[in-house]
Amino acid sequence: MGMLARLLAIGVLPIIFLGTWWAEAGRARPYRVFVVMSYEETFPWCKEIKSGIDAVLKESSQITYFHMDTKTHLEGGPEKAREAYALYRRMKPDGVIAADDNAQSMFVVPYLKDKVSTPVMFCGVNAPAAEYGYPASNVSGILERHHIRESIAFVKLLVPQAKTMSFIMKAGPSAYHILDSLLIGEEHYLMRMTEFRTPTTLKGALQDVKELAEKTDVLYIETLQGVTDAEGNPVPDSVAIPRAVKQFGKATVGANTYAVVLGVLCAVVKSGKEQGKTAAEMLLKAMEGTPVSGLGITFNRHGKRVVNVDALRNLEIKPKSIIVRGSELVKTNLNVEK
């Protein structure tokens, strides 16, 4: 009797086929992915990250998004993190993505890092990875690094007479990490950094901008999302940034496309989509069996020049075509977050 006949006779071959079928069925099940965003669902940066994650995982995964809303309600972050962990335990996801710094300090580090076997990939992190104890046994990801020197060089091309620059961003953990990044390469900038302001209210932000306009040539606006109005309500960037740009009345530079669309003159932008895409690609490898230890921490590499043509006209700046060649040209749109 041949080998195949013997296998059929004793029932081994059907078992082999059944095992193969179960393996295929297991692979066919969509991965369950839990994404914890530090900020609000309407925040443009979160939308960019989501687009990158979806582009990689939508075909293979069921993705659940959870927003901690800490741009506007930082004090509620720890409670949101507890809610996220409760949802994590109910979901039992195959993988987790945690975006931006507050999701690390409030969610991943207390609840997941070195405590579970689930692979976790971070993105949008401004602090040094070591601040959170990364890499960890189950954690890796992509750091967020601003194209600060490049943005300063770009605005200097547009406004060659500018010599000084100040920085403003809504107070919070990310602001202080970004300030550290600004200071690291300060000696190589084409303009001298003068002051750093981190307001908590819209009134305070506009007062800061008014004061800075009297002593500096260019204002670097990162984000003012979440500064509060007179009633204590959080104000979105779509309101705060245009008012700051108008109050300053001179050249401004930023770090994100949405800031330029809201009226900032220019930026060499980082991409939230790149952050989300990279984290999702790393997580997919981990869910497919690659050890997290083999997925080294990386950082964003791509920058894109963006120029607001309305701001050019308002400031009566007429750059040579070679300066803006290859840049994305946008017009002011105050509905960017809607």
Low-confidence stretches are: 3-26
Largest sheet entry: 7 strands, mixed
- Mean pLDDT equals 90
Please, how many helices?
A: 13
Tell me the strand percentage band: 15-25%
Given helix and strand content, the structural type is alpha/beta
Strand order of the largest sheet: 7-6-8-9-10-12-13
Task: State the share of residues found in helices, binned by percent.
Answer: 40-55%
Reading the helices and strands in chain order gives HHEHEHEHEEHEHEHEHEHEHEEHHE
What is the alpha-carbon Rg in Å? Answer: 24 Å
How far is it from the N-terminal to the C-terminal residue, by CA?
73 Å
The number of E-state strands comes to: 13
Envelope shape: globular
Task: Note down, in words, how this protein is organized.
The chain has helices spanning 3-10, 12-28, 44-57, 77-91, 101-112, 148-158, 173-184, 202-213, 237-248, 257-261, 272-287, 309-314, 321-324, and strands at 31-37, 61-67, 95-99, 120-125, 139-143, 164-168, 192-197, 218-221, 252-254, 266-269, 298-299, 304-308, 328-330. The chain is globular. Mean pLDDT is 90; it is low at 3-26. Helices cover 43% and strands 18% of the residues. Strand 6, helix 7 and strand 7 form a beta-alpha-beta unit. The strands form two sheets. A seven-stranded mixed sheet has the order 7-6-8-9-10-12-13. Strands 2-1-3-4-5-11 form a six-stranded parallel sheet, sandwiched between helices. By secondary structure, the protein is an alpha/beta fold.
